[in-house]
Amino acid sequence: MKTLSSTSLKEKSTTMEVRVASSEDYDKILEFIRVHYYLEEPLTIGVDASVPQDRRDEEFSMSNIEHGTSIVAVEKDDILGVFLASPKNEDVAEHIKQEAEKFTGTKWSKILEILYRCENGANVFKKFNVTKAIHGHVLAVHKGARGRNIGGQLVEKAFSVAKSKGYDLFTTDCTSYYSAKLMERLEMTLVHKLAYKDYTDSNGKQVFNPPEIHESIMTFAKKL
Ligand code: ACO
């Protein structure tokens, strides 16, 4: 991937396209999230910090593309942001739990365990009386292009694509202070909040220790 300086991206007048991601974007998106997502995402850097993201974590993120509900922002040949999202149904919490149990002890399993807690606590299918939803898993904007509302545009496009595919609910777990602020700006409804300090192991020790600005995982929902 070409590297553009932060300044040039910040100042560039926009010829940006925000569209559904396809299999042709696969390699570029993988390269993009390795640089602009995993190196900062609070769960990834908050547990087993010396270990990089699990291969299964990457595979799961990338598997979102095949559903036609993931969004990419591109300017010329450069990716400026992605929002990887896919369908889920009422079995999802149980499925996350089973995946976590398969890989016990790994970084991926620890991440799945906390996401299971959020999914269970949020209980969106009951709350919103639906049987299916689209869930946004990976939101990332190029480090040099933040603060241009690219995140907001990705999320709004994801809402309209989900709606056009017959979904009435969109949900997402914001592990980051910045993504939570963004969802609040888009008037998503906060349905669950889990503070990192309250998520402890059997010895009472905090499991995830991301940078201080990230205090909790906030789960948001939007009726489409
Ligand atoms: N670090 C420092 N400042 C930031 C960051 C960040 N990670 N993200 C946004 N900001 C700043 C912006 O520069 C902007 O500042 P300004 O008002 O002075 O110009 C302000 O916060 C508002 O930025 P937004 O436009 O709301 O954020 P943007 O859409 O550019 O990026 C995002 C938000 C996508 C969450 C970004 O922080 C990011 O890519 N983070 C790394 C990966 C990550 O943690 N993703 C979220 C995980 S949760 C999930 O995926 C659902």
Care to describe what's here?
This protein has 224 residues and is of the alpha+beta class. The chain is 39% helix and 23% strand. The protein has nine helices and seven strands. It has a seven-stranded mixed β-sheet, sandwiched between helices. Strand 2 and strand 3 form a beta hairpin. Helix 5 packs antiparallel against helix 6. The longest helix is centred in the middle third of the chain and has 16 residues. The N and C termini lie far apart (35 Å). The model has no long low-confidence stretch (mean pLDDT 95). It binds acetyl coenzyme *A (ACO). Acetyl coenzyme *A binds next to strand 4, helix 8, strand 5 and helix 9. The site of acetyl coenzyme *A has 23 residues, from strand 4, helix 8, strand 5 and helix 9.
What profile does the largest beta sheet have? 7 strands, mixed
Mind telling me the C-alpha Rg?
17 Å
Query: What's the N-to-C terminus distance?
Result: 35 Å
Average pLDDT reading: 95
The class by helix and strand makeup works out as alpha+beta
Bound molecules: acetyl coenzyme *A
| Fraction of residues in H or I helices | 25-40%
Strands of the biggest beta sheet: in what spatial order? 1-2-3-4-5-7-6
Per DSSP, the total helix count is 9
Strand % is 15-25%
What is the H-and-E element order? Answer: HEHHHEEHHHEHEHEE
Runs with pLDDT <50, length 5+?
none
Care to count the β-strands?
7
Task: Tell the overall outline.
Answer: globular
Provide a brief overview of the structure.
The chain is α+β, with helices and mostly antiparallel strands and 224 residues long. The protein has nine helices and seven strands, in the order αβαααββαααβαβαββ.
